[in-house]
Design brief:
CATH class: Alpha Beta
Strand order of the largest sheet: 2-1-3-5-4
Order of helices and strands: EHEHEHEHEHH
Keywords: Isomerase
Largest sheet: 5 strands, parallel
Organism: Bacillus infantis NRRL B-14911
Protein name: Ribose 5-phosphate isomerase
Number of domains: 1
Helix content: 40-55%
Number of strands: 5
Number of helices: 6
CATH architecture: 3-Layer(aba) Sandwich
Family: Belongs to the LacAB/RpiB family.
GO molecular function: intramolecular oxidoreductase activity, interconverting aldoses and ketoses
CATH superfamily: Sugar-phosphate isomerase, RpiB/LacA/LacB
Distance between the termini: 30 Å
């Protein structure tokens, strides 16, 4: 598995936690920034990660901003991306099982680093169930192709 990680200025601390988690789990990752303490625009980080995941260069992505909302909205503009904004472990598992999400978004101002690690670990370890859920994902793909 290869994971692309990025944040804007509002998610720098949790992005660092995600990098430590990837190392502990033995998952290859690339950090797409930001290296900042000043305000940056979240689309400048969300869109490149989403494009890398959509192209297949990376299997999954993790995006963090203050709330996770801006990152998730931006990433979901890229065809083929199913970015889920998650702030609890149950939703992290469900979005992988049922929605085959390929990008996880979280908000550093919403959750702390411990919960973020637990959410990401669950999300990374959970497989897509397929079955009736695959039909639903197929409908999304069909719409994207219109």
């Amino acid at each position: 598995m290869k994971v692309a990680i990025a944040s804007d200025h509002g998610g720098v601390n949790i992005r660092e936690e995600m990098k430590h988690l990837m190392e502990e789990m033995g998952i290859e990752y690339e950090d797409f920034g930001c290296e900042c303490g000043v305000s940056f625009d979240y689309p400048d980080y969300a869109l490149p990660v989403a494009e890398k995941v959509a192209s297949g260069e990376f299997d999954k992505g993790i995006l963090i901003c203050g709330t996770g909302i801006g990152m998730s909205i931006s990433a979901n503009k890229v065809k083929g991306i199913r970015c889920a904004l998650v702030h609890d472990v149950f939703s992290a598992k469900a979005t992988r099982q049922h929605n085959d999400s390929n990008i996880l978004a979280m908000g550093e101002r919403v959750i702390g680093p411990g919960l973020a690690r637990e959410i990401a670990k669950t999300w990374l370890e959970t497989e897509f169930e397929g079955g009736r859920h695959a039909n639903r994902i197929g409908k999304i793909k069909t719409y994207e192709d219109l």
